[in-house]
């Protein structure tokens, strides 16, 4: 075999050996499709709870967004766009009307401030249309009353703040009312108990849609328990225990806080407590 041809054969053989070891050159992986944003419409109205108004944005818009959580477009809407005064006296500008509900995946109603009266027809009609279109409708705390006025809770399980349970049962007799739970998920209609249960409810919505791992990452960023079962009691009647220091050293700690500029020796504190040095030392250790 001529030298040139023999050298070419050896080079070809070497390349085949390398390919056998490393395998065929892989094709570039297709780019991952970006997660589709979730559209959230949050109702605002005069006297709305500032806390409840903030919870959806805090939970769904947590930063930095953990892996697996798609972007959430949180929009605020009102029956009448413009300035809205919250329950804490803060005024916010709400540029959008109820048309934001027409394209939302999630519609959230914060605690309603007039549960004894029916919600305006324009609002309940917008909620009924959003629900009929397939949106998930959520009533936080007394927001459940608005969902009830819209007829969305008839023959469904629901809850609300424990303080208004009698009124709720009176106004909505067709509802399967669960008074002692944190939140109730009945298909695409969700209701929650009062105040802080709104965070549990929104975390559960993330758990539903994106899985427990994503919900746990969000909870970790919010420094809140990752999961409280919806069936957990809203509260437990339990007296606050009396601290030993409150009964054994009456008034001493308060006096000490008010006189930090003075030397607080053991003898001085014992005198304030009307005890001997030895007795004060023993009581202090027991506390």
Topology:
Elements: H1 3-22, E1 38-43, H2 50-60, E2 72-77, E3 82-85, E4 91-94, E5 106-109, H3 121-133, E6 136-139, H4 143-149, E7 157-158, H5 165-171, E8 176-177, E9 183-186, E10 189-192, H6 197-210, H7 212-222, H8 244-248, H9 252-258, H10 266-272, H11 277-286
Parallel strand pairs: 1-2, 1-5, 5-6, 6-10, 7-8
Antiparallel strand pairs: 3-4, 9-10
Helix pairs in contact: 2-6, 6-7, 10-11
Give a quick summary of the entry.
By secondary structure, this protein is of the alpha/beta class. It is 39% helix and 14% strand. The strands form three sheets. It has a six-stranded mixed β-sheet with strand order 2-1-5-6-10-9, with helices on both faces. A two-stranded antiparallel ribbon has the order 3-4.
What keywords describe this structure?
single chain, 287 residues, alpha/beta, Rossmann fold, 2 domains, six-stranded mixed beta sheet, two-stranded antiparallel sheet, 11 helices, 10 strands, 14% strand, elongated
Written overview of the protein:
With 287 residues, the protein is α/β, with parallel strands linked by helices. The chain folds into two domains: 185 residues, Class I glutamine amidotransferase (GATase) domain (Rossmann fold, 3-Layer(aba) Sandwich); 43 residues. The protein is built from eleven helices and ten strands. α5 links the parallel β7 and β8. α6 packs antiparallel against α7. GO terms for molecular function: DNA-binding transcription factor activity; sequence-specific DNA binding. It comes from Acidovorax sp. MUL2G8. This is Transcriptional regulator. InterPro entries: Class_I_gatase-like, DJ-1/PfpI, Homeodomain-like_sf, HTH_AraC, INH-QAR.
């Amino acid at each position: 075999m001529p030298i040139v041809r023999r050298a070419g054969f050896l080079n070809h053989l070497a390349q085949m050996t390398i390919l056998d070891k490393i395998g065929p050159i892989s094709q570039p992986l297709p780019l991952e499709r970006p997660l589709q944003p979730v559209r959230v419409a949050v109702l605002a109205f005069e006297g709305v709870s500032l806390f409840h108004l903030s919870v959806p944005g805090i939970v769904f818009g947590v930063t930095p967004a953990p892996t697996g959580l798609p972007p959430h477009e949180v929009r605020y809407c009102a029956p009448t766009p413009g300035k809205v005064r919250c329950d804490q006296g803060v005024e916010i500008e709400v540029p959008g009307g109820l048309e934001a509900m027409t394209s939302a995946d999630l519609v959230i109603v914060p605690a309603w401030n007039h549960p004894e009266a029916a919600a305006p027809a324009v609002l309940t009609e917008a909620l009924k249309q959003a629900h009929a279109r397939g949106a998930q409708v959520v009533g936080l705390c007394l927001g459940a009353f608005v969902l009830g006025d819209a007829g969305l809770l008839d023959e469904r399980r629901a809850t609300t703040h424990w303080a208004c349970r009698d009124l709720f049962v009176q106004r909505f007799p067709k509802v399967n009312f669960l008074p002692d739970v944190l939140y109730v998920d009945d298909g695409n209609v969700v209701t929650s108990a009062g105040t802080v249960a709104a965070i549990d409810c929104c975390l559960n919505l993330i758990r539903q849609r994106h899985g427990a791992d994503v919900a746990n990452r969000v909870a970790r960023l919010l420094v809140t328990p990752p999961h409280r079962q919806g069936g957990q009691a809203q509260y437990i009647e339990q007296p606050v225990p009396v601290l030993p220091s409150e009964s054994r050293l009456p008034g001493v700690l308060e006096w000490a806080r008010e006189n930090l500029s003075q030397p607080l020796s053991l003898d001085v504190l014992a005198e304030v407590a009307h005890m001997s040095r030895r007795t004060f030392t023993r009581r202090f250790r027991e506390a």
